[in-house]
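During the first year of the project, the team set up a workflow for recording each protein of interest as an amino acid sequence followed immediately by a discrete structure-token representation. This format lets reviewers and collaborators read both layers of information side by side without switching files. As required by the reporting guidelines, we include two representative entries from the current panel. The first entry is reproduced here exactly as it appears in our internal archive.
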Amino acid sequence: MPTLRDELDGWLRIPSVSTGGGDAAALRQACDWVCERIEAAGGRAEAVTVDGGHPIAIGELRCSRPDAPTVLSYGHYDVQAPGPPDAWDSPPFEPTERGGRLYARGAADDKGNFLPLLHVGCELARAGELPVNVRFLVEGEEEIGSASVLRRLGRGEDEADCALVFDTIMVDERTPAITIASRGLVSANVEVRTAARDLHSGFYGGAVLNAAHVLLAMLAEVAPDAAGRARPELAAGVAAVSPDERASWDRLPPGADAITDVGAVGVAPEAGDEFYERTGAATAVEVNMVEVGEPRTIVPATARAHVSVRLAPRQRAEEIGAELERLLRAAAPEGAEVSIEMDLADPALFDPAHPALQLAAGAMERACGTPPALVRLGGTLPLLAVLAERGMPAVVSGFALPDDAFHAPNESFRLESLRLGEAAARELYRTLAELPIG
């Protein structure tokens, strides 16, 4: 049978780009590739589309135990566009090994990261040694928002006792991580109009509303304080951090280094010490863009901004979005026309004391030789919010590293990370067989 490395080479050669309109034929080929392997291992699989989206590979491998738990193994086969070919040292869809790394688009995000879950599950099934039922959910829209999978999961399909998600990074080359939370997001496009057209400031300045002034006053009303903390109305409902999780942060690289390594300046003296709380367990408000006027003497009639609020676990996007809109509109003077368009995504939080996560932590330590750190994703992953809403515990991990350059030219994945992923997948399936089902 093909080795894990052989299979990865073959999958990476399929240019399954979903961004920029996507490559429909290649996306279908990459989806069918997954289904073929599940069927060859004795399982059932099919390519399913939801509302005309890219196909999802849905498959199942069953073990002989009637009381075995079911594990949902999630990944995605779609990749980002490679960009200019001359930015790559080797062709992006011709996997090339250099210096202990495999270079190709999708090597880390997410084909190389996810494939051990599929490969090991199929290998165990062929040998009659699979200790759990494994349901696979491998999508082709992760890079463009996961609309099909979110609809499918939101309808209550793909039931399982826990989920395995290999789509994140390690703490360092030796230390695995289990992500127990992701932040939600309120994303707002704001437009202010104060006149039918821009006006001459010599004739009208000081007598008419200036869209720039109005917008800046509105943004000031929702901006964080001088220490970078969100105002109380936008930080309502944040979940407390457990002592065990806070202790786990001591194993992470110093937060001050994370700030200085990217050439940034901490918003307050304490920002480095509080880095992991601020970026994973607290609300963060950012003005991402302001667009207004031009360098001549006018009174601008229109002004636009983009504001985002990263939501901490236990906050609700709908509630915080409504509060953000209320604060913005309340700061606008009478006569100013304000339009606000929002996108909402809820945060997710999984209890590290849940049996699934406790079993997974032990499995990861045995596979990697180092206990996993408990971390929080500062970004937003809507899939996790849906799983959390359904009460399905998720073991969110992965073996990529920042140096893997995912989404950039010369994306790569360490061969050692591939080995660790294979060992972890094997140990996780074995250990999760002990998970109580109910």
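The second entry, processed by the same pipeline in the following quarter, appears below.
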Amino acid sequence: VSEIYCYPDSVKVKISLVNGEILGFEGRNYIYSHKERTLNTPKLSKEQASELLSSQLEKKDYRLSLISVNGTEILCHEFKVLFDSNYYSVFLNVDTGKQEKAVRLK
């Protein structure tokens, strides 16, 4: 499986919109979590997973993502959705379709 956003390995950089200066950097996740991973092919397709979402959610974007829940890494279909004027990321397990996490975006 290729092109997966790997949250456990994420690096964050805060940049000034005024002059492009770097204001902050956080690389702890990458330092402690980066490793070679072997991931299985998803059992549920993007389309199958999409059908599991509530019809009240307006789908805006999609990607495969690796997340960590209680120290366990889980491959998910990540849907960016709009609901009640708020944006969320909803993570559905690629094998079971179970919602593993939902995060309101700022």
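For the second entry, the following points were noted during internal review. The chain has a mean pLDDT of 95. The first strand starts at residue 4 and ends at 6. Both points are flagged for discussion at the upcoming steering committee meeting.
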